[in-house]
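Troubleshooting: if your tokenizer reports a length mismatch, compare against these two reference records.
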Amino acid sequence: MRNIDMAAALGDNSTLTGDGEAPSPSTAYGRKRGGWKSTLFILAALAGSALASSGWLSNLIVFLIEEFNIKSIDAAQISNVIAGSTCFFPVIAAIVADSFLGCFTVIWISSLISVTGLILMVLTAKLDVLRPQPCEHTRSICPTPTTTQYAVLYSALALLSIGLGGTRFTMASMGANQFTEPKNQAVYFNWYFVTLYISSVIASTGIVYVEDRVSWAWGFCICLVANVFGLAMFLLGSRYYYEDKPEGSPFTSLARVIVASVRKIKKSVASFETEDYYCGDGGVEGMVPSKSFRILNRAAIKTEGDILPNGRVAKPWKICTVQELEDLKCIIRIIPLWSTSIFLGTPIGIQASLSVLQALNMDRNLSRHFQVPAGSIMVVPFVSTAICLSVFDRYISPLWKKIRGKNLTPLQQIGLGHVINTASMAVSALVESKRRHVAAHSLQPQGSNIVVALSVVWLVPQLATVGIGEAFHFPGQVALYYQEFPDSLKNMSSAMSAMLIGIAFYLSTAVIDFLRRVTPWLPDNINDGRLDNVYWVLVVLGVINFAYYLLCSWFHKYKIVEKEDYDHK
């Protein structure tokens, strides 16, 4: 989820004027709205939300296996679907906030939904009637959950996904909207990420440890308290917030282009002159559409009855401006590169869920008195990404510019991410081969699990490598979309980043399901399977996707940027 938050933050496009605070003369109880005082409440709310969401999401696979007797691969599938949903709901929340309710209302309603979901999770962990009976004889006999138990569980997870999706995206944008100067927004984003990272690490280690070693009910109670704290802090700051009024969603104008072009399908675009195209009130008179995707150009052609005598549009869904037309074309041009990121994220989603299953079947004792929770293993890519981002910003990027005379381009960053991510899958395959070799010679029963006498530390290289890859390709993606999208659709660039991660998680579920159907590599007991073959398949897919990426990037042309930024390729 750290990627979604980065996308939300970097994708903001606030108006930049004034003295560094939000451009509103309104006051509340004699206090000026916006500025740092308001963001303190937003950051406190973010801390509570991040503690709560990381607390239940990081350990979800383990909870499903141990408390609901769900088979390991099925639990990984459910976790991927939930992760994908938390990436799609932010897009819906952004549309609702922009078009109808505004950020403040979306955040508090989403937080309340999260609280409701956590209450159900606490009840599920506390009440025996809401969970199946424990397994007998070392998981050989495991009662399946009833329909009612499944209904309560899935209702809780759905509420938590909606709540998580509706808060972090809008918190990033709402916090940035409290300022008008770029330097203040940049400082806010730094604190946003510091707060998010620290809260997530604490939750993925401390709260997960409570869930594993004390009880699930206590762990979920801590999540609930953190969520309530975040909601309370957010509401307490309401008198200080500057709020933008909803101005409508950019998706509406894009849809209008498609509908208008279909309604004028019989119109020819070859015989029309400059004055035949509609530029709108704020458009540049005489502007004509580009020659690419000419089939859409008819959407901006003025026909009888489209424009009223006063210059206003009579039928909004029958004509659009040339600028709106070009905005849609811009998105179409970026889709091929965007699709390569979907296939880049799919192996990451598969690796994340399978690594937790590997950790469950490995020796997690770091000392005689401390055992690493399986869910906490995913802190490794989180930390490696944060470290690599710092190293890249301070050393790699300046060194590259000194040697090459120009900055590393977004396309080059993404390309490096492709290579490192594929290397991570290869490392995962080699580590799994080692784990299987040890498993074949020394299996140690430990409680209800079969644990391989191989330290969980062996998983660190593969997870650290994928984290390094994310430090390259994800900021590159955000920068590329933000740079290439037109000004009117800057916020949509972050939505594109969220959508590709969501699709990647759903696609990872489909890939695992396909491999389960056609191969014996993914049984419930992974010691009897061939996870190493799964990883090698991901390596092959990564190489193919990288070739596809190189093809797309070769034909992609950057928009005009500042001379000191970088050249193409």
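Reference record two:
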Amino acid sequence: MAFAVNEINRNSNLLPNVTLGYSLYDNCVKLGIGFRAALSLVSGQEEEFMLDESCVGAPPVLGIVGDSSSTRSIAISTILGLYRVPMVSYFATCSCLSDRQKFPSFFRTIPSDAFQVRAMIQILKRFGWTWAGLLVSDDDYGLHAAQSFQSDLAQSGGGCLAYLEVLPWGNDPTELGRIVDIMKKSTACVVIVFAHESHMIYLMEEVVKQNVTGRQWIASEAWTAAAVLQTPDLMPYLGGTLGIAIRRGKIPGLMDFLLRIRPDLHHNNSYGNMINQFWEHTFQCRFAPPPAGWVESGRAICTGDEDLENVDTEFLDLSNLRPEYNVYKAVYALAYALDDMLQCVPGRGPFSRHSCATLQRLEPWQLVYYLQKVNFTTPFGDQVSFDENGDALPIYDIMNWLWLPDGRTKVQNVGAVKKSALKGEELTIDEDKIFWNFQSKEPPRSVCSESCPPGTRKARKKGQPECCFDCIPCSEGKISNSTDSTECTSCPEDFWSNPQRDYCVAKKIEFLSYHEPLGICLKTTSLLGTSICAVVLGIFIYHRSTPMASKPGGGATLKWFGAVQQRGTVLALTSIQAAICTTWLVSSSPAPHKNTQYHNDKIVYECVVGSTVGFAVLLGYIGLLAILSFLLAFLARNLPDNFNEAKLITFSMLIFCAVWVAFVPAYVNSPGKYADAVEVFAILASSFGLLVALFGPKCFIILLRPERNTKKAIMGRMH
């Protein structure tokens, strides 16, 4: 922060003729101290604040850079928001701080946890991890992250939580032991942790004690870069960790600034304790303490001529500037907002009556207005702007904890996740660079249930998360052609599922064909019957002058029912049947019908009668004639005349009626094409019965017993 303010003051293009100052407070990681410090800053009542005589106007503090904690930022911003004092945090990530109703003057240069949560969910999806455990700290940071994570995970359908546990403050062995025991027993190989560095230190003590290995850790930005956890003792457990890290940046000139600052032993100014502490850490054991007359020579009085740039300390390691980079951007955001405000042209301002704000009469809410519209680019090339909620353009680095063969550890950048106006949220990962702390050296599998293959559907296990399910095969006629289908879809009407139930196939078509054995038999029998009828007709035509073929006499007996009456009766009865058939065929004729009731996987083409009434009337009429013929023949069976054919008629009608009485139940109970076969068989059987019973004896006499085919023999006058 000191470097940024110093750099801005030396920049003639930014805030010309204006010198920025600052006051630093150590909150001691205590909410009360940080809260009182913020109030002291904005009220101008702090004891150590010394206002330069050349600086005029109120309030002396235009904005606050901080706090680093979400909990403290919530408390401080709640009060400062009432007075619209701008507050720009560089490390508070709680998504709750994006609520503009509660925190109208809060801004931050670090993305909120909402984006960090979505970034983690994208990582889970990238590697197919649908079963993970979630550990969070017992504060606003962790609890809001847990709430956001569960909500986004459910909406995205990216997986389920095997467990959700809150890490207690302090080292509570009992509670930590219970949590680690849950981790150990769980089938989830992925553990996501939204917690602070201190929580992880205590947690890892219990992890080592219970020897919980084989876990893929996903770290939030709060402990991704925690050097205290990157030790050889913990790498067997934490090696391969994937973490979300604050965007790393470069700040040109910062190294030179650090090498030239010195402890001021004569004045108790704003540098004071910070610089003294810096030198104590930097030169302990290696360099002699700086003397009272220290000068800005850039060198220390040492045992040798070591150069300051060769000092290997945490303070001078500028290769991994992350929170520091956010501080740098926060200071510049306030400076650019103030610069935009001072460039306002009177009469064209954004406030009442087009007025402008001035340093002499500056209201905090006026600076908030300009801070909301800040848009600049850092020397590192990153764009800095705030959305309507005060959140910065989100971007995170993805880090991987590498365990080197020599036992050393290294945290390397393996990707990034960012949001842009054109492409939205975008995740890029170089998987070849990732170190996996598993024997297979490949990403682990972390699922509650393996994916259901095509041909099955997911069925949730009762009382368990939706990621835990059984794979149920699709029923007949239904398919699923994708992995993890939640339901099976029915095949179209003329299609059926294949044995694997993963696609539909055309149903087999079945009908009574002329080419199959049954059809050939029926066809042959029908042709045989037709041929026999033709032969009988030929015999009767050829022997038309004999008595079978003509009346044997007895004209007086048959004068009331002679040849004319007989032919007329046959014609009349046949005309009635023809009329019934014609009406049936015209109104609703029989037609082929696709029947799927017999076999689900087959289409059976059968002949439907069309009009049931027509079919019933026709069948009833034929049956009536058969019954009348049978009764008349039965009554005349004992007539003495040798020409009496009542016995033959009676026998033929018995065959006819027996066949058709048996046909009805057989037809109804026969499936598919066999119903048509039964009908054809009934027609053929009744026809052959009449042919054999009525015409068989006549043809026998005509062909084989010609001596009986005489008038005398027929009339019974032969011995």
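Descriptive notes for reference record two:
- The first helix runs from residue 2 to 9.
- The chain has five domains: 2-110+320-381, 113-247+395-433, 252-317, 456-506, 517-554+562-715.
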